[in-house]
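Quick check before the chapter quiz. The format below is the same one you will see on the exam, so make sure you can read both the input and the output lines.
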Amino acid sequence: RVLVAMGGDGEIQSLLRDLTPDDISAELVAASRVCSAKGLLVSAAWLAELVQGLEMSSSSARPNRASRNKTQVLKKHRCNIAVEYLRYSGQADESNHALLFAKTLFDTKELQRAAYHLRACSDASSLFLRCYCTYLAGEKAKEEDIVDNPKSHSVPINEKLKELREELEDLYRMGKLDDPFCLWLLGLVLKNLSQRSLARTVFVRSLNAFPYNWSAWTDLASVCDDIAQVKELPLDDHWMKTMFLAHFCVDSQLNKEALEHYTALERLFPHSNYIQGQLALAHYDSRDNNAALFHLEACQRLDPYALDYKDLHSNILFVEQNYAELSNLAASAVEIDKYRPQSCCIVANYYSLRNQHEKAVMYFKRALRLDRGFLSAWTLLGHEYIELKNPAAAIQAYRHATDRNSRDYRAWYGLGQTYEILKMHSYAIHYYKKAMMIRPDDFRMWCALADCYELADKIEDAIVCHERAVQLNGHDGLPLLKLAKLYAARNENDKAAYYHFLNLLRHETEGTGGFDKALALNFLAQHCQSIKEYQQAQQFCLRLLDCPGKEKEEAKALLREILSSCGAEDTLVYSVVST
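Here is the expected output.
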């Protein structure tokens, strides 16, 4: 029995109570066949992988299922869409010989020829394949232009977009464009023409008609600004909607919500490599590397030859500076397929960890030649250019990343760092703010912003940002120290003493030391002396005597002043000062 909580969505909860994995399996298989017939191989493979991930067993059926009308249950929850679509479209397509021939040409990448042979066909399947071939031919020409003119500063465009928009939009306005795949293609064209609002409307219509086109879901996510906008979309209730919400939450750094969605879906798809990988990604973005590695190991067990998420694994090994494991992972990826973007990024991370940054750049560039849309490669390439002290190239790489995904906080943060290195603080502040807006609960974003405000002599703003960083993570000593110094420079000694004291408590709790501990003790001793709290001042000075170097002599001198000021000489303190 499948019982999955979906965050208060009553219709989806009802669906998952009524349906069994067997029901979902039949629908996913039919949907995969539909997408495959349309040439949407990424969606077809994604759906087929979900079928593999289902928990298929005799116990999955509900005990009283025999008394239920299965057809009515499927119809109630719109889970017979793919089966019905496959039945009716398959019958129509079988008699269309031009479509059959065009599909074989599509499979052999003869895109313009396929479109030509469908010019006289007016049915929905032929219209979609003809327009899709035209779109892909335009994309191919655009990529060839990039390869032929690598030094060109102009952004190449798909020359077919305008004619496709005119044809499809005219049909849409006349109410003659109701096929879900034609609607998706119109949305894709509008998205590429930066018509985000209209693209959202069209994508929603497509998905309400056929909710199994995963490419349509990811395209919809790319034209939504935030989770509030997503929740307002008039999407019909369907379990695929939860997949979309989980994907959007991961993409938007809403990691807590993403983990809730994927944990619920994991119960329905316990053997899904995709679900395990997305769980790993959410944990990684939450800075929980141990949990991320747990799910990545599950991916390795489920599908050892899948390269998806192995580049994520390499990022974690890079951060942990695990040379041996990263070397083994790189060797394994190259053995599976060395000409995949993921393999190239893994090898690049390996060379970067060994401080061979030129080789790392070479492999990141190779990954991008294989797939210019491989987002993480652009961001990591920017990091490598920073290591090579090439800020102009770093900025270009980071901009490519933000152009492809405006929610990539690492690329915005990288731009901020680069402009800070160039001492262009206004630009750096702008980009750090972009990163902070995406991850408002990450204290590192606030620390970077605060440091930049300080360099730009905007002390009030720097203090506000450091205080927010302390609220988010009181275990990091740097913002505490910075706040103490900033308040001391403004002669607000009470506040400076407060943050020095918090830093001192942190050191005591963690059992650590350092120059900032001695600095805190020295400041607190002097502050207590100035407000005539002589006993507390003595205590801080006595603790400062344990510090090596000049701090010890300063503490002795301060103790003499304190004893002289208070007009009494404690025997123990006097003997310590004397020695």
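If your answer matched, good. Residues 1-12, 57-68, 568-579 have pLDDT under 50 and may be disordered.
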